[in-house]
């Protein structure tokens, strides 16, 4: 593996950029993360009406979610590696641009094929957070880095909490295409702001891009996640699902073999298998599972009809507002997470976050009938998610060389995505198995919801144990050397200018 190579800034770049740009770097990157999460969430309130609006089947409409999941899972590690090689700002701007193009396509068309393709393009935005975290590592001094990374990690939950009520309001009071015109405008603004306010990172890892590894990872992940996401519809024991899982195992095994022998692999598996990095990825997968169940179950629970005996029968706008306090909490607690990580280390912060998630589900189990208790439990889970998600990238930053930051964080986000996909399938299976007819329509029982909470809380405790088993999280020598190269390159470029 080649050593990281500092890329000098173009002459005049540093002096031409006013101080305002430096002050706006963190807000611009954070707004990009929030916009990415909003873009992924806004389609959710539309799903019940899209079959009528697009003249398509419900199964076809579900692919508007599945396509984004699959493309995001595949493109996140790929674009992370590309950012390390060709420039993080360049790849970040391209990802935001693809997201914006997809939004424009959704605004212009009602054809289900075009909408699915557009949503697949929007999946590229899943790489925004790991790329932004890598830029923050390269550009910020250590004393500002922790809080900035924590905020960047929290944007996923903040955007999701904002996106649902925003989309519900637009869907209720305006034409559904209006929502995508709005996100298109925000996306174009985000692309322009990123190109203007964010400097290109001076640290890169040169080499030839691993096309074979990219194709292998894409094929394996598509088979795996397609089987997980469609298992409930096609039947977990159906030949198609079993074939997908067998293909995923075979393809990913061959991919692993190829990556270990590649001169410049897409994913450095020797780095991934180190306990500090590998256990961080395991904790990310488990935390993603535990976190996602909160959003899935809360939305369904409060909208359940009152005839069930436990449901509140709330409209979709009120449902989104129930999740909003969790988004506000994530914004407020991100600096708290940074302080805990600075004082105790990100390993302790991650374990604490997972434990708080488990406590939130304990609240949900204790009382899921009163609205204020539902909101309290969901907010506690969101608080724990903030602590955990803010600590994960810090663990990765301290365990990998600077030239591999984007690709390593991309893999970490990929593990969270896989955890969320498995969570969605597991929760759906539990709720379908524990349902009873209400007005002739099968509706999940309260017992089914409580089982889902128990499952998610237990996974959160396993994530806590995984976090505590991560070896010491002090900065490694490679990280310090690479960080020194980064600062040296930047200082040299400024002096030369």
Helix content: over 70%
**Secondary-structure class:** mainly alpha
Give the CA-CA distance, first to last residue.
Answer: 31 Å
The backbone outline, from C-alpha atoms, is globular
The main sheet orders its strands as 1-2
Rg over alpha carbons:
22 Å
Please tally the β strands and state the result: 4
- Beta-strand percent range: under 5%
Mean pLDDT: 84
Taking the sheet with the most strands, its summary is: 2 strands, antiparallel
Counting H and I runs of at least 4 residues, what is the number of helices? 19
pLDDT < 50 stretches: 4-17, 474-497
Order of helices and strands: EHHHHHHHHHEHHHHHHHHEEHH
Based on the model shown, name its key terms.
two-stranded antiparallel ribbon, mainly alpha, two-stranded antiparallel sheet, 497 residues
Show the helix and strand layout.
Layout: E1 5-6, H1 13-16, H2 19-41, H3 50-54, H4 58-86, H5 88-108, H6 112-122, H7 128-139, H8 142-173, H9 176-197, E2 203-204, H10 211-234, H11 239-261, H12 269-272, H13 275-303, H14 316-344, H15 346-366, H16 371-399, H17 405-433, E3 435-438, E4 441-444, H18 446-468, H19 477-496
Antiparallel strand pairs: 1-2, 3-4
Helix pairs in contact: 2-7, 2-8, 2-9, 4-5, 4-6, 4-10, 4-17, 5-6, 5-7, 5-9, 7-8, 7-17, 8-14, 8-16, 10-11, 10-17, 13-14, 13-15, 13-16, 13-17, 13-18, 14-15, 14-16, 15-16, 15-18, 16-17, 17-18
Question: What does it look like?
Answer:
The protein is mainly α. Helix content is 78%, strand content 2%. The chain is built from 19 helices and 4 strands. It has helices at residues 13-16, 19-41, 50-54, 58-86, 88-108, 112-122, 128-139, 142-173, 176-197, 211-234, 239-261, 269-272, 275-303, 316-344, 346-366, 371-399, 405-433, 446-468, 477-496, and strands at residues 5-6, 203-204, 435-438, 441-444. Strands 1-2 form a two-stranded antiparallel sheet. Strand 3 (435-438) and strand 4 form a beta hairpin.
